[in-house]
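Open question from group meeting: does this chain pack into something compact, or does most of it stay loose? Before anyone orders reagents, we agreed to write out a predicted structure and look at it together. Recording both the input and the output here so the notebook holds the full record.
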Amino acid sequence: MADGSYALGTHPAERRRLERQHAIWREETLAAWHRAGFTAGQRLLDLGCGPGFASLDLATLVGPGGRVLAVDRSPAYLDHLRWEAAERRLPQLEVLELDLATDDGATLPDRGGWDGAWCRWVCLFLPRLDPLLAGIAAALRPGGRLVVHDYVRWDTFSLHPSGGGVARFVERTIAHWRSEGGDPDVAGRLPAQLEARGLRLLQARSLMACGAGQDPKALWLQDFLEAYPPRLAQAGFWTAEDQRALEADLAQAARHQAFWVTPALVEQIWERPLP
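Structure tokens returned:
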């Protein structure tokens, strides 16, 4: 990881990119929380919260009678979130610095006391899922629910038509993540692992999207295509020739009719069953 916490760092430009990302997916996020029954007065976890854009929405949702604990391993992002919570007068929002990939991730506070947990785009980056999943299972009260948004097929990320530059980027990104212990298809592994920890799958749905060049989710993909190649190059997975091929694809898409397809994102809602 670039700063020991996030692949693209925690600098202001990356924070702004993550803010745009949250805004683009916010409608789907709020709908998922509604389907899970997240509501005012509840105690909710935001696991792998990053700069905390979802945490702020959760804190607004639960209101002053609830509690949100935002968990992340980046001190810079947590400092930013503390400042935002104070500015917005959200005392119900607390933060906790914790590495969810280590054994500490299995020791979330207030065991059995949480009404719900939210986890988006975290599992795919964890070399070890056991600490996080064990921590979630122990943290939820009977009847408590977990909402997960993560990828089941990252290789569906594509541009049509394409000269191959985007496809090369997708292939190299997958290889890079796997080399660091990640799994860009991790959602497919979660059912067996969460069932083994006593949770029950209530709902699952696809959030995969397709759009023309100025569609918000198409712009989200293009945003990532701008931000991530330098990290790939630093890790030895990207060359100048690769970058030229990618830029040729983007130029072609800007001049002619084309559409984008997102990675196959899946929503899962799980419950810790009542006795």
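Observations to bring back to the group:
Strands lie at 43-47, 67-72, 93-97, 114-120, 140-153, 158-160, 200-206, 210-212, 259-261, 264-271.
The CA atoms of residues 211 and 260 lie 5 Å apart.
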